[in-house]
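Working notes for the structural subgroup meeting. M.R. asked for a predicted model of this chain before we commit to crystallization trials. I am recording the input and output together here so anyone reviewing the notebook later can reproduce the run.

Input as submitted:
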Amino acid sequence: MRLLSFLLIILCFSCSNKEEKYYEVVKEKLNGNVQSIKHEEYSTNFTGQLLDTLPNTGFFVKYDKNGRLSENSYYIHSDEKPNKETYKYDEKGNIIEFTYYYSTGELAWRQNYKYDKKGNLIEENRYNYFGTREERYNYEYEFDKKGNWINKTVYRQDLEDTKKEIYKKINREIKYY
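Returned structure, recorded in token form:
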């Protein structure tokens, strides 16, 4: 249970990682068509006695009818209102919008994603709470004979869309049977 909590908290804070916007959703092994999960952790002493009557960390996760993450609210201290993330998907199941809200409910930022016909991320735009674009990243791929990408180049584009620079290169080696 603590491992799941740790993984979900890592997921929450990994949103600033530009490369992994596909958000591999971490789910417990649950039976049935799960709509939501509420998870709270309490501090105890060595004998198992509760140190506080309020949870010290927690999250509330909602899934859509297709089992995809649709909302994630989390807090570090129970007396805080939770921060909230929402996710929207296209008909192929790709995340097309990620929105992050402060604990006050105010919009912090929004990110949009575009994909090619094969489902590879090709563009990412991040907008601030005013709706002004702050960042744009473009993705280019090289594929092997099986159609899997082996080289990915991420370009950061300036706000005027006049120049782009290499932000990151990723190479991967895939071995087949």
